[in-house]
Amino acid sequence: MTKYLKIMKNKFLIILFFVATFCNAQQIYSLRPAESSLPEGSYQKDTNNELPEYEGTWKGTWDNKTVFVTFKKLTNQYDTDLKYYKDYLIGKFKVIDGNGSVLFDNSTITDASAKIMGHSFRRYNDRYLLSYIDYDLCNTNANIAIKFADSSKTQLIWKLTYGSNMITIECPYYNTQTPEALPKDIVLTKQ
């Protein structure tokens, strides 16, 4: 009986060693406060379930144009650059002019090709930060900050700041002004 117990004890210790060695629990971090760097393989999770409040279609008008922006929450997505998983919003949009003609429409592209991608909440206010990269408009890039206008969360304040874009000869807008597909400042209303 003693020999049997020693064998079982050794087997148990070997199994315990392998489990302890190869089992790594994923560290979970909240979207708030925004962390500047997270460990590789960790998960930046929407622990407060804030992102669903932004989901849906939002509408606004500017310069005789109407924009429809649809936000969708993606969960547990791996970021190959940052090397961790995260929850974030993506945005797709459609812009029509005063005559009803479609100027820009990426509402049917895949989620992986979305031109608007969320990052995090600002540390000191309630703004959620997103980036906009449009390869169809000569790699136009911008930063977007959104926040709710009121407690009913039916209006969204949108502030977009364009980055510096280098226009090359391959760009169809090489000697002209690149169109601005999205407004800089607007209040969007939930549809």
TrEMBL record:
Claim: Signal is one of the keywords in the record: yes
The record's keywords, sorted A to Z, are: Signal
Q: Which InterPro entries match?
A: DUF6705
Record-annotated DUF6705 domain positions: 8-191
**What does UniProt give as the signal peptide span?**
1-25
Q: Signal: present as a keyword of the record?
A: yes
Q: What is this protein called?
A: DUF6705 domain-containing protein
Species source reads Chryseobacterium oncorhynchi
Taxonomic classification, please? Bacteria, Pseudomonadati, Bacteroidota, Flavobacteriia, Flavobacteriales
